Amino acid sequence: MRKVFQAELHQVGEQLIEISRLVAEAMEKANESFVNADIELAQEVIAADARIDFLQNDLDERAIEILALQGPVASDLRMIVGALRMSASLERMGDLARHVAQLARMRYPANVSPESLRPTFAELAENDIAIARKLTELLDTRNLELARDINRHNDRINELHAGIFKAIAAPDFAETAPTAVDVSLASRYFERFADHGVSVARKVTYLVTGEWAPNGASH
Questions:
Q1: pTM surpassing 0.90?
Q2: Interhelix angle for 74-107 vs 39-70, to 10°?
Q3: pLDDT tens figures, 4-21
Q4: 211: helix, coil or strand?
């Protein structure tokens, strides 16, 4: 029975890694559709989100079944409860990548971002994609240096996000009101994607160390 239990735990961990890989791929493609006004790629991201949702639901059902049938305690219990919480954050990251793609689709054939803000959005996306890739590796290896890297990327994203709102509020911002709304939404999606990545990294850190670091205090 113990071997079966450990195999079930391992499967839950592997499924988290798979969801994380799909989330990273979703953000990579969503950003490409955002940058290039690629409606076909945007539609691909939107459609693929259903797979992330399915895997999250399947993982949650599996974890709840383990809780009900195996009665895990101590570190095993933390692992299963942590997996439930991490799957919810990963699913939300997939939703946010989908939202970026939906903006690209809605504004096609135009670009969502005005020319002046494209370098900032490029850096936002670069950091988000780095977080998603490192999160997948973190879930696989439990190397906590990756968690610290994720926090550093998130710090930079917060700076860029604040910079976009400052640019929109500036007297010389000459774009239309709909563009300002789109840019605000897009920046928020990129920023929230990173926040959920940090949340998952904190939970992995807790599983490894047994110590909870609130508000990303593992810098």
A1: yes
A2: 160
A3: 778 888 899 999 999 999
A4: coil
